[in-house]
Amino acid sequence: MKRISAIHAPAGKTSEDEHSVQTGNLLIHARRLVLGLAGLVVSVGVWKLAYEFNWAPRGTLPDPSAIFPALRGEIESGRLFPAVGSSLIHYAWGLSMGTVLGLVVGLLAAVNRIFDDMQRLLARILRPIPPLAWVVFAIAWFQVSHAGAAFVISIGVFWVNYFATYSAVRNVDPRFYELARAFGRNRFVDVTFAITLPGAASGILAGIRTGVGQAWMTLIAAELLGVPGIGQEMNAAAGVGAYDAVVVYMLIISLIYGLMDFAFSLGEGWLLRWRPA
Amino acid sequence: MSSPAVTGEATRAVVLGVENASYRYRKGAAPVFSDLDLSLRAGEFVSLVGGSGVGKSTVLRCLAGLLPLDGGRLHLDVERIEGSRRRSVVFQDSRLLPWRTVGGNIAYGVEGLGLSKGERSDRVDEVLSLVNMLGYRDRWPSDLSGGQSQRVGIARALAVRPKIVLMDEPFSAVDALTRRHLQDELLGIWSERELAVLFVTHDIREATYLSDRILVMGGSPARVVHDEPMGRRSRDRAHEDTAQEAAAERISSAMGGIDGEGI
């Protein structure tokens, strides 16, 4: 009860109140952590049960306790790091190409009416095509290579950034453009960097962040076709029934994505530090 | 251009004005105002009053060059001095860029003037001290109160060293006490910098307190229906003189008369 009253501390609070608010926040965080870990333990428990009682076809569900040894095996065999490195190469290329192009095209479409009208129908036709449908052309044009995988990845990332940038730029408060004119700052490049991009920053960054995740989804699928990387290793492991190794790669993806998203959120927080808390 | 110190209103040059001006939002629409004549002399403080929606802010935007006149002529007769702008604007909402600090917002107006970084920084400090906000240079706009934001908006307008400042109901969103402070600060800055100010307001008391001259807008399409000279005087809230009272009466009836006319 004390915690609740502290959280709803009225205006004019004393330092003692602030202290109990901090304690309250700490308790909330601690509770979240404990419950989060509990959720994890429960799900691993269910997994273990499923393994022990053969809920899945025999041999297709690995023992949870075999995951760490499998991780060591993948490292020692020399497969893990090259696979991760290879994936990161086409991930980085695909992500950056898709992001830059999506940002530029989205921005131009949002600020230029003629370009907007020219691209609208085209976007409507191309948008529904899943990135993986382009794999055929990726192979035809780039063979089984980093470039081919990067191409497929960039398509998904492009659309995410294109739509996010387009709507973020469209939603920049028009009063800021009037301000720019009032101070004679109406050159296109000047307005773009001083008003449009900062004004649209939070929407654009949300798009980039979604793209960072989207790229992983397409990456694994693109690699299942044979481009070296995590996806290919998973496919190879599954082919010999090494499902524990598959889970290792799944967790590696989760870890890399988690680290990237965390780093991104730090950068985003810094860029948007002007926003009220 | 004659100096504001020269006596006699008529001898001072018109620095900004419109003749037979009209404006409509789009072709075919009814004009917001037409046959509008208005002039602002060097160093003069003119208020533009009128009911809400009459088109005061539209007139101000035309004078600021933010909207093109549909008909008539706009004069802007101020020497363009290196490192300054001839006119600048204070908006009703303070319109600070939320992603720039207080100092960055003020610098925004100055950045296009070809000054060195050091000169720009000096300008920022100079105007911040003018509006008593020197300690706020590195704050974000989201940390400021309404009155503080408006002070920064005024500082930004002054940083470009304009001869004309166009103010669109700048104090309408702040509390009464802050408004009084801001009005007095504005008067101090106005006389020190010899500015020509066009001040849009719907508050007659504010207009009579601040202005040398008050223009009343009314009608549809709107025009200037009354021109009330207030004369040079010492401004004292405690002793609002009878002349000021009488002026307020005349302005009020000019506004009321028009409101009653209908279209």
TrEMBL record, chain A:
Topology in the lipid bilayer: Multi-pass membrane protein
Pfam families assigned to the protein according to its UniProt record, in alphabetical order: BPD_transp_1 (PF00528)
Domain ABC transmembrane type-1: 84-261
Chain ranges passing through the membrane: 33-51, 88-109, 121-142, 148-168, 188-208, 243-266
A GO term from the CC aspect: plasma membrane
Chief localization: membrane
Entry keyword annotation includes Membrane: yes
Gene3D superfamilies assigned to the protein according to its UniProt record, in alphabetical order: MetI-like
Subcellular location, record wording: Cell membrane
Record keyword Cell membrane present: yes
Sorted UniProt keywords: Cell membrane, Membrane, Transmembrane, Transmembrane helix, Transport
GO terms under biological process: transmembrane transport
Entry-linked PANTHER family: ABC TRANSPORTER PERMEASE PROTEIN MJ0413-RELATED, ALKANE SULFONATE ABC TRANSPORTER-RELATED, MEMBRANE SUBUNIT
Family the entry assigns: Belongs to the binding-protein-dependent transport system permease family.
Protein name: ABC transporter permease subunit
